[in-house]
Amino acid sequence: MRPPFFPLLLAVMAMVPPAEVLWSAKAAEGTPLARGGSGNANAKSPAATEPGPHGHRLITVPGGEYTVGCRGHPTNPRRTVWLAAFWIADAETTNEQFAEFVAATGYKTDAERRGSAHIFRYGLPEWKWMDTPGACWRFPQGPDGPEAVKSLPQHPVTCISAADAEAYARWAGGRLPTQAEWETAARAGSAMNFPWGPDFDPKQANTWDGVTHGRSTKADGWEFTAPVRSFPPNAWGLYDVVGNVFEFVSDLPPGVEEKSDQPLTSARGGSWWCSARTCHAFNLLDNGTMAKHGSLPNQGFRMAFDPPAVSGGSKQG
Ligand SMILES: [Ca+2]
Question: What's the predicted TM-score (pTM) here?
């Protein structure tokens, strides 16, 4: 039985210090947006990938009306949204890209300022992380693990908080996508639960191989994060919208209110850590909520950019 969504979050919040990591997600209990269909009326053809700032490859999403969510979903109800045109990165932001930001600014992440991040260890109960001194974006598996910049340069940056992701985005001249923007780009015109169809396919995304967190079989090739673009893209050319790392978005799910004593953030798409029993959010519908300054090894982000108001502007940075 999955834990209840917001009641659990509130109960946990009352017991933990502000810097503690919280995570709550709930799968859809209602009718999927569509099952077994062949796309929907949202289908549009965005422009080809273009070079953007700091190595980001950008996909143009045309402005217009889009349908997101599904009937009966507690935090992602089916609704029509209007979006202005925007650019979205084809891949999650990498350790190499984040290192460029840190080298240019001297930025210290939330985990570095605290001196620890919550990371995965075998043997932990489901849904549990271990607060580990020395863990941060540079050492996302802990200080005894690989150094991200040297060993994992093309893997998504992790153990960064949503606040850290926003700091990077401001420096890079962009922002995090909204819930609706993320889902529209991730759907790429599909009305189904996954970019490839109505049912989960473990060969299409980096998730946890198994129902629980017993030893990973690496059936999809990866125990933890995978280099970005390791799995097939969606119809618009976005990679890893499902699996690899949860991607922070800029707004909370519908119906989830900000807490003055505990800033919250939300993320989409599921991650390498997501097993069938843990989080279960590796799809196009579910949206989890966690502490805005929390740092986990399965949390990353994808950049969005606003087109210049006057055509002819350069995206090179
Ligand atoms: Ca995997």
Answer: 0.86
Number of residues written out for the chain: 317
The rounded Å distance from CA 238 to ligand 1 centre is 19
CATH superfamily, domain at 10-312: paralog of FGE (formylglycine-generating enzyme) (3.90.1580.10)
Q: How far is the CA of 175 from the centre of ligand 1 (A)?
A: 28
List pLDDT tens digits, range 217-273: 788 999 999 999 999 999 999 999 999 999 999 999 999 988 888 899 999 999 999
> In this structure, which residues have their CB less than 5 angstroms from ion ligand 1?
206, 220, 222
Q: Mind listing the pLDDT tens digit for each residue in 100-149?
A: 999 999 999 999 999 999 999 988 888 889 999 999 999 999 999 999 99
CA of 15 to the centre of ligand 1 (A): 32
In the chain, domain spans = 10-312
Look at residues 234, 301, 314 and name the one whose alpha carbon lies nearest to residue 271.
301
